[in-house]
Amino acid sequence: MLILAIESSCDETACAVVENGVKEIASTIASSADFHHKTGGIVPEVAARKQVEFIVPVIESTIEKVADYRKIDAVAVTIGPGLAGSLIVGVEAAKALALAWNKPLIPVNHLVGHIYANFINNTTPNDQIFPAVVLIVSGGHTDLVLMKNHGDLEYLGGTVDDAAGEAFDKVARLLNLGMYLGGANLSKTAREYTGSALPEKLPRSFIYENNFDFSFSGLKTATKRLVDKNIYSVPAIAKEFEEAVIEVLVEKTLKAVKRTGARSILLGGGVSANQKLRKDLADKAKSQFNNIEVRIPLLNLCTDNAVYIASAAFFNQNYQPFDQVVPNPSLTINGGTCIPPSFPSSI
């Protein structure tokens, strides 16, 4: 089955064709990042206007890479969460394409899409994967989910304030490491530090709490206090900050595996590109649990793309009438698909 998917939830405009949810046939991405660098952050109107400009060429470029576009079976599109104007561009383009081709339309939750970056070029049987603990870490979201099967998600917990990716970007600004998407620069700077650990440790919020929630706002404040003391180098602070975030993410994920008896761990979201997170999660999971599978997306599938949207559409196939496919900027990972945790409170 061939699915063409469109993704336009933030500043990327992407289109992809994927076969049977696992084989990437074609993919095209156009980014307006250069324009947002000038303003130090994403301006929603600028993002949407650039997507209006990019959407047709991106779709055409993708279709040109497919041997016979008439063999495409369905059209999928991200409906949220994301920027309202950006989502509208993608949704309306997908509707027009599906109508012109007389193909069914599949709406996809962008956060669920992140999970399916782990299924591209991977054909491990489902009975060896599920149940899986999923950690989604991005600029806007930090969530832990128990994935019992395709379309069967149980929300475990998430951030009560700021997302981990947002914390990375804001601390990067604080350290003068970039005004836009500085998280990657912060991680690079942290790797440059080879000195001793700081005598002052930053907080690992909620790490010992008997739940799966996260909090990073206090960590940002504590980091600012450390910077204001003007006694530690930028690389030293960057390393301590990164370690504080990653330690909490990893420990909470492993706690979820222990609580649920999951067979695998799936990582997703933009922050999944972080080298320390990728290494620490894999190493610690394999040292604590026998025969656990840890899936980490390819680097090019960590950031927004339409490949994982097509994969999510295939494995869920939530076909909807055109008039019911509408943008939902505030959509959550548990929006209509997840149920509250039901396991005992003891670990």
Structural summary, described in words:
By secondary structure, the chain is an alpha/beta fold. It has two domains: 2-116 and 301-332, Nucleotidyltransferase, domain 5 (2-Layer Sandwich), CATH 3.30.420.40; 125-297, ATPase, nucleotide binding domain (Nucleotidyltransferase, domain 5), CATH 3.30.420. Helix content is 39%, strand content 19%. It is built from ten helices and eleven strands. The protein has helices spanning 33-39, 44-64, 84-101, 110-115, 164-174, 183-192, 217-229, 234-260, 275-288, 307-316; strands spanning 2-7, 12-19, 23-31, 74-80, 105-109, 132-137, 142-149, 152-158, 264-268, 293-295, 338-339. It has a six-stranded mixed sheet. Strands 3-2-1-4-5 form a five-stranded mixed sheet, sandwiched between helices. Strand 6 and strand 7 (142-149) form a beta hairpin. Helix 5 packs antiparallel against helix 8 (234-260), helix 6 (183-192) crosses helix 8 (234-260) and helix 7 (217-229) packs antiparallel against helix 8 (234-260). The longest helix is centred in the C-terminal third of the chain and has 27 residues, at 234-260. The protein is globular, with a radius of gyration of 20 Å. It starts with a strand and ends in an 8-residue tail after the last strand. Mean pLDDT is 93; it is low at 336-347. It catalyses: L-threonylcarbamoyladenylate + adenosine(37) in tRNA = N(6)-L-threonylcarbamoyladenosine(37) in tRNA + AMP + H(+). Fe cation binds at residues 110, 114, 304.
